[in-house]
Amino acid sequence: MLELLPDLRPLDVVDILVVAFLFYRVLLIIKGTRAIQVLIGLVALIGLYLMSQLLRLQTVGWLLDEFSLYLVLAVIILFQEDIRRGLARVGGPWLGRAPSDSREGLYQQVARACFRLADQGKGALIVVERAANLDELEDDATVLNASLSEELLVAIFQPTSPIHDGAVVVREGGIWVAGAFLPLTRRTDIDRSLGTRHRAAMGLTEETDSLIFCVSEERRRVSIAFKGDLHIVDTPDELRLEVQRLLQLEAEEAEESRGLTLTGTSRPVKRNGAASSGSTETIADKDGHA
Predict the structure, then answer these.
(1) What are the E-state strand segments in 109-151?
(2) Collapsed DSSP state (helix, strand, coil) of residue 190
(3) Is 72 inside any structural domain?
(4) pLDDT (tens digit, 9 = 90+) per residue, 88-136?
(5) In this structure, are 25 and 125 located in the same domain?
(6) Which helix (H) or strand (E) holds 225?
(7) Pairing of strands 167-171, 142-147
(8) In terms of Cα–Cα distance, which of 177, 195, 171 is closest to 283?
(9) In Å, how far are 95, 177, 201, 270 from 128, measured between CA atoms?
(10) What DSSP state is assigned to residue 56?
(11) Contact 233, 242 (CB under 8 A)
C-alpha cells in the first residue's frame, strides 16, 4: 500500500473525493425512502456474486450474470418516482427552493382539524407524504386532488362521510387521496390496547419518512407518529411546536449536508413543568377503525 503512494497524483485524490461525494449524495437521497431497502438487497447480491467468483460457484455466477443484465432496467422501472424526486432534490439547492418551514401553514390547518375532530369525538388518520413515495396507497382509495383546508378534513372524517374510514394522504400541500389503508406495525413490544388506527400509523412510519397525525375517537386525544413512535400532544400549539422541531431537524441536516431528507431521532414534546429530558408518552386506544 505504501509503495503506491509515490504514484498517487493530485488528480487521483480529486477523483477519489468526487466518487466518495457522489456515493454520499446518493445515500442522502435514498435515506428515508423505501429505496434504501433495495440498496441493501443490491449490496447482498454483489456480495453473493463476489463469493461465487471466489469459490468458483459457476452456476450461481452464471445466474447472477444473466440477472444483472435486467437489474438496472428493473430498478429504473420500479423506482422511477423515487428517482425523479431524488433528482429534483439534487437540483433544488441550485435552482432555489422554498425553506422547509414553508409547510408550516399546512401543519397549522391539520392541527386545527385534528383538535376539532378530537373535541367532537371523531377519529382521524392524516398522512403527510415526505420524500418516500406513497403511490401504493392509491389502491382502493378515493382520489380527491383537492386543496387542503381545515373544513374539508373535518368533513371527510364525519361518520356520515362515505370516505371516513382509512387515512387521508396529503401530497404537495393538497389532499391527494382519502380512505387509504395503511400497513400495520409488526412490532410486538407495544401496548396491546393500541387500536388499529395507531398501529397503522406506526406501521407506515416504520417504512417511510411520513409524518402522521392520529386522532383517537374514544380518548379524544391527538398524537403524532414519526419513525415508528407515537407522541401525544395536548393542544394545537403543542402540535405545531413538535412539527416545528422536526422541521428544524430537517433544516439543520440540510445545512450540514445540503440534504433535504428529514433525519434525526424523534424526541418527545417537552411539556410545561416537565423535566428537560422529557419522556415519550404512549397512547392506548381501543378503537378499531383503520
Answers:
(1) 124-128, 142-147
(2) coil
(3) yes
(4) 655 554 444 444 444 667 888 899 999 999 999 999 999 999 878 888 8
(5) no
(6) strand 221-226
(7) unpaired
(8) 195
(9) 24, 11, 11, 23
(10) T
(11) yes
Nearest to 148 by CA among 132, 124, 122, 171: 171
3 state DSSP class of 289: coil
- As for how many domains the chain has, the answer is 2
Q: Judge whether 29 lies within some domain.
A: yes
For residue 281, is pLDDT > 90? no
Are the beta carbons of 176 and 169 closer than 8 angstroms?
Answer: yes
φ, ψ at 125 (rounded to 5°): -145, 110
Q: 216 vs 87, 114, 200, 286, CA distance in Å?
A: 38, 10, 13, 9
Q: Is residue 108 part of a domain?
A: yes
Q: Which residues pair with 170 in a beta bridge?
A: 128, 175
Do you know the residue count of the chain? 290
Specify the DSSP class assigned to residue 3: G
Looking at the structure, do residues 137 and 247 belong to the same domain, yes or no? yes
Q: Mind listing the pLDDT tens digit for each residue in 186-211?
A: 887 877 777 888 889 888 888 888 88
- Quote the distance between the C-alpha of residue 151 and its chain's center: 26
Task: Decide: residue 226, CB within 10 A, 0-12 exposed, 13-18 middle, 19+ buried.
Answer: buried
CA geometry: angle 41, 133, 136, nearest 5 deg: 90
Tell which residue, 75, 26, 56, has the closest CA to residue 257. Answer: 26
Backbone angles phi, psi at 124, to 5 degrees: -160, 155
pLDDT: is 233 or 94 the higher one? 233
Whether 242 and 230 have beta carbons less than 8 Å apart is answered as no
